[in-house]
Specification:
With about 850 residues, the chain is of the alpha/beta class. It is built from 40 helices and 14 strands. β2 and β3 form a beta hairpin.
């Protein structure tokens, strides 16, 4: 299954290569997958010789891109397994050991201990005489001893552990390849698409000619399918981004979803923002079902479209809507009407099997009832199948239609009431279990995994879902894969939720609460995975995939102030999203989410939770140059602080962060010292106040609090020109950082230590620390921070002997992403909605210059020309 998933992704990612020589040429990601290693190690093999003859992995160039020949990859892999010679016995190359550290996630591969780790040979060196990466594994000293000396840990057990690690690496690469695909979130079109040939051709011509296109028509009339068919037949280089607006309740949420997609396509290096990314990628944004926003505020529809069109000069926008859009100008509009009678007949016949009884008169009445409405015709076809004849379906519609449509006095039908009649009748044909599953799927705006459904209903879940699919009431993504996911079709979701909630009031409430609880727990799990720092692109993609579901938890909690359990879940969801927003460079969106969590906590009298969300918001705001966001966070902090008599240390740290953002070093020092006093006092009382089993976790949390306070004090000293004192504080902070906080904070602290070393004239030490920080930022995908580290590095290299080679850790990919990142930061600063301050503008230019210096010192200055934004 994993191999097939890789092949499917590769088909999309390497479409151009397929036209040339698919069997022999692989991209860097595909080549790394082929060998089961990280992309970093792949490029190390191209730089440095390995084996007895110091052979390097050779590359080829395909349309200006670095690729790898399959035969060469196979030969090189076999070469690494040959004896390396006696001179190689001392130790494996450092870059291989670095790869093993990443592969092992920083712990023993057997017992997960994080201290005293050693590199072990699965097959002994004496036998293989090779440092082949697949034969090496990271073990703690005790496990290594059990393997080498005692023989209680046999090689076959280590081989199993190694294979598991290789599969994790490959899974991460699959996630990265998905991020580079040409289309995002575009659903599959219906296989039975009859008629509309002229409409498809007309839409394709419009998409070739116009920048903004609107497709209007009634619910279920076929707007979405028309657009999908048009995309399928077009020969265009535009990247298609699909936004299903029905998943969201506000225009801000839609913009956030678009920003998430921009981060995903850029492999997390997307500080350029939505506007720059859309233009850079030559993108077509498909906004499907925009009328959803009109339910809360009709103005939101026009406001969103105006905003999107203003922030992008090149991106194409195509919108589907059930409602008339008045204020926004579109270059071209298509009013989609029903199918012609002949095509209605053809669609019905294509959906009904030969076994069903046919009757021309009944068919005529059925199609008159459908009035050319494709979704209604599909439901009628399922009714014909169910009742085994067209006359039987017509009889049931006539007998039960008036009751089903719930408008008993209406004499005539229209497309809306016909659809409701058929929906209601189809719904009545489902079993109770099928309705329950449909309600669950409809309750999740972002859909549900098949295995999640099966957790609720057991092994029969697959059969139940299949029944819903046959009735055209649900559709699937990634069919047959482990990540198969089901969605309720629009406009069916609201109908189903209303029907089930009315007929099973108590059960629907219980089931919905259970689903929301599971979503809250999922958000917590995903946050923990991000904290662990491995497979970050995958876990970021999972957060984005569930975003609309997580929003639902928060929205439900906000609307139910007395539902304490649900509001507790919403707090967990808000807090869990912090690392996601931080890593994906969405500070403004993250601040708003943390603010929602803080307001829920304040309303419920949970000051500690409110303060925690405020600290998250303040931390995120440090990455924003928008003064409105800073003011918003400041107001929230003041509101929380005034009503709080506890958590003074956290509040002091938050105030120190804001003071540092304002450039007030003295206030930063004052608040940081206050935080240290409060945290140190808390530490003294921990052991006497807490149960023994909770002490360790509490002390770790306290250590991270102290680490944060020392960081802020270091920032203050560095701003005041007291680099020696700042260095001491940063070293204390680095020594105290614990657990999951290391993922987010360790690289930042090392970077600050590098700045201190530079200020103190210790430029070689500064280079070492800045390189370490840059590699760390690149590994976990922290945009802007990578450019910061490389930018500062450039100025230290100017002071040193420029003839010295760059450290080997700075791979080609690190440098390429670094220059892209620096250019993106400059573009964002220049194109921001708010007026950037002089200091931010100067640093953006200085940072880019520093990165250019680093690349110019490298052995391949052509990297500047290879940059995606150069």
């Amino acid at each position: 299954m994993e191999r097939r998933r890789f092949e499917l992704v590769l088909e999309t990612v390497e479409a151009d290569d397929q036209r040339n020589n698919e069997e022999q040429s692989l991209s860097d990601l595909a080549a790394a997958y082929y060998l089961g290693i990280t992309r970093e190690l792949l490029f190390k093999y191209t730089q440095y010789g390995c084996g007895e003859d110091k052979r390097r992995l050779q590359t080829i160039e395909v349309e200006g891109r670095t690729h790898f020949d399959k035969a060469e990859l196979k030969a090189f892999d076999e070469h690494l397994q040959q004896p390396w010679g006696s001179n190689a016995r001392r130790a494996p190359p450092k870059f291989i050991e670095d790869h093993l550290r990443v592969e092992s996630r920083g712990g023993c591969m057997r017992c997960n201990v994080g201290a005293g780790l050693e590199t072990a040979h699965i097959v002994a060196w004496a036998t293989c005489n090779s440092h082949y990466h697949r034969n090496l594994i990271r073990l703690c000293a005790q496990c290594h001893k059990e393997h080498d000396l005692h023989g209680s840990l046999i090689s076959s057990e280590l081989r199993v552990l190694k294979n598991q690690a290789v599969e994790r690496t490959r899974s991460n690469l699959v996630g990265q390849m998905r991020l580079k695909a040409r289309s995002f979130d575009v659903p599959m079109s219906e296989t039975k698409f009859v008629g509309r040939e002229k409409d498809v051709a007309s839409l394709q011509a419009a998409l070739e000619k116009y920048r903004t296109v609107l497709i209007q028509g009634a619910a279920g009339i076929g707007k979405t399918q028309l657009l999908l068919k048009a995309f399928e037949g077009m020969k265009t280089s535009r990247r298609v981004i699909w936004l299903s607006v029905e998943r969201y309740r506000s225009a801000d949420d839609v913009v956030t979803a678009l920003k998430m997609l921009s981060n995903e396509t850029e492999l997390l290096f997307s500080s350029v923002g939505v506007s720059g990314w859309l233009d850079n990628e030559d993108t077509c944004v498909a906004i499907d079902g925009i009328e959803r926003l009109a339910e809360s505020s009709p103005d939101d529809v026009d406001d969103l479209l105006v905003k999107l069109q203003k922030i992008s000069l090149k991106a194409q926008f195509v919108v589907t809507s059930q409602v008339s859009i008045q204020r926004t100008h579109f270059d071209h509009k298509i009013d989609l009407t029903g199918l012609e009678p002949d095509w209605s007949v053809a669609l019905l016949r294509s959906l009904v099997g030969e076994h069903a009884g046919r009757d021309k008169e009944s068919r005529t009445h059925l199609l008159e009832f459908a009035d050319g409405h494709p979704l209604t015709i599909r439901l009628i076809a399922m009714l014909v199948e169910h009742f085994r004849s067209e006359s039987g379906a017509l009889r049931e519609i006539r007998r039960r239609g008036a009751q089903a449509v719930e408008i008993p006095k209406r004499a005539e039908q229209n497309r809306e009431t016909s659809l409701k009649t058929c929906l209601s009748l189809a719904y009545e044909m489902l079993t109770t279990e099928e309705r329950r599953v449909l309600f669950m799927i409809a309750s999740c705006p972002a859909g549900m995994f098949s295995h999640h459904v099966e957790l609720h209903v057991g092994e029969e879940g697959a059969a139940l879902i299949a029944a819903l699919s046959r009735w055209s009431l649900a559709h699937v993504k990634e069919a047959g894969e482990s990540n198969e996911r089901w969605f309720a079709l629009s406009p069916i979701r609201s109908f189903v939720i209303n029907k089930w909630s009315t007929s099973h009031e108590t059960e629907s409430r219980t089931l919905r609460q259970k689903l929301l609880c599971e979503l809250g727990e999922l958000a917590t799990v995903l946050a923990q995975k991000l904290e662990e720092g491995s497979d970050i692109p995958h876990w970021v993609a999972r957060f984005r995939e569930e975003w609309a579901n997580f929003l639902l938890v928060v929205e439900e909690a906000e609307s139910l102030p007395k539902h304490s359990d649900l509001r507790e879940l919403a707090l967990a969801v808000c807090s869990s999203m912090m690392h996601f927003f931080f890593l994906t460079y969405m500070p403004e969106q993250g601040v708003r989410m943390m603010g929602r969590g803080a307001k829920i906590a304040v309303q419920d009298g949970k000051t500690k939770d409110a303060v925690a969300n405020i600290v998250h918001a303040v931390s995120l705001s440090q990455r924003s140059g928008d003064p409105h966001i800073i003011a918003y966070v400041d107001d929230l902090l003041q509101e929380i602080a005034e009503g709080s008599s506890e958590n003074n240390g956290d509040i002091a740290v938050a105030r120190a962060m804001l003071a540092n953002k304002r450039g007030d070093a003295l206030a930063t020092e004052q608040y940081a010292r206050q935080a240290l006093r409060d945290f140190e006092a808390s530490r003294k009382s921990l052991k006497s106040e807490l149960e023994r089993t909770k002490i360790e976790a509490a002390l770790e949390h306290n250590d991270n609090d102290l680490s944060g306070a020392h960081q802020m004090l270091g920032h203050a000293f560095l701003a005041l020109g007291r680099a020696n004192e700042a260095l001491t504080e940063y070293e204390l902070a680095l020594d105290l950082v614990r657990g999951g906080s290391k993922t987010m904070n360790e690289g930042q602290i090392v970077h600050q230590i590098g700045l201190c070393k530079s200020r103190l004239g210790e430029h070689r030490e500064a280079v070492n620390h800045l390189v370490q920080a840059a590699v760390w930022f690149h590994e976990i995908g922290m945009c802007e921070y990578l450019a910061n580290a490389l930018g500062n590095l450039g100025f230290d290299l100017l002071v040193l002997d420029v003839e010295q080679p760059l450290p080997v850790e700075l791979t080609k990919q690190v440098l390429l992403d670094g220059v892209d990142d620096a250019i993106a930061c400059l573009v964002q600063c220049l194109c921001a909605d708010h007026v950037p301050n002089l200091e931010d503008s100067a640093w953006s230019i200085r940072r880019l210059f520093g990165v250019v210096v680093v690349i110019s010192v490298s052995s391949d200055a052509r990297l500047l020309g290879e940059s995606g934004r150069a």
